[in-house]
Amino acid sequence: FSNFADNGQIGIDAMSSTVEVNTTQVTGHPQQGVNLFNSAIEMSESNVDNNGSEGMRAQSSVGAVKNGTISNNTGDGVALASSSGELDGTTVDSNGGVGARASLGKITLIDATLSNNALDGVVLTSAQAALENSRLLNNRAFGVVASERSLVTLTSSEVSGHPSGGFSLVDSSADLRASTVKDNQVNGFDANNSAVKLLEESVVSGHSANGLLLTNSSVEIDASTVTSNSESGFTATDSIITGFTSRVVSNGSDGFTITNSKVDLEGRKLANNTSRGSIGETNSEVVLKDSTISNNGSEGLVLTDGTSDIRTSTINANGLQGVLGNESQLTF
Q: Which residues make Cβ contacts (< 8 Å) with residue 102, sequence separation at least 6?
């Protein structure tokens, strides 16, 4: 077991080098624990903690950390610039900044946990992140912040317990497969000019506002569920929502609240929402095929200055009207 401790600047500082680190402690440095420029590093069974800046900073470099811990550093846990990094079986916890940050690079998380960091879990700027069997838990702002055409993909992963919300997307994309976004404060997703895919039994649930808040964005939802959010499942302005065989159920207000937007669904269930199954205003369009709108607390579908085509669908057992239209075109 090697120990890099309490040196006067940086623990490991590599320039145009290749570094291999095994069973090592890097701790107590006033600057970064690990600093890379145009270098490559492989770390295994090692800990980077209690350093005065980032745990690991990489510029134009490649890094891999396996079965390690990056914790209690003053800055970000991991900061990548024009670099790629992989965290495999690694925990990034209780750092003073973001858990992992990437700009013009890519970070891959495999069976990793980013938790209790002082800011967001993951921040992407013109970058990519891929999470597989990984967890973003209880970081102190958002779970994921993505901007400037970034892409984040989740497979069998979880984002939960964030006070600012699960995802903040601006000009970016998020693709989820068999993943869960739950119990974040505010919204599960706040998407502006962005695209979201919820696929393969993904779940968005338990948020104190909306499951998804959309502005000029698109969502594809397939075989997934949006449920038990305190306000609406979806609140959308200038957006498009499409999907198949999914459920929007038991939300605290409406299943869908849309303005100047389109909802085009097949095999969907809108049920047991406290208020309406769907409400559309100002040139909105609702198309439902082979779907069910039932057991909502007030109306099944409300349209004002909109259009709907709900042929081959079932609307029953709602608290008030099945369909309520005002200055709208309704097709049954």
A: 80, 81, 83, 85, 122, 123, 124, 125, 127, 128, 129
> What is the rounded CA–CA span in Å between residue 326 and residue 244?
28
126-177 per-position pLDDT tens digit: 999 999 999 999 999 999 999 999 999 999 999 999 999 999 999 999 999 9
CA 285 to chain centre: 27
CA distances from 67 to 24, 59, 325 (A): 12, 23, 58
pTM above threshold 0.90: yes
- Amino acid, res. 15: M
**Parallel, antiparallel, or unpaired: how do β-strands 278-281 and 256-259 relate?**
parallel
Amino acid present at 36: L
pLDDT in tens, 41-57: 999 999 999 999 999 99
Q: Is 170 helix (H, G, I), strand (E, B) or coil?
A: strand
Phi-psi region of 19 (alpha: psi -120 to 50; beta: other; left: phi over 0): beta
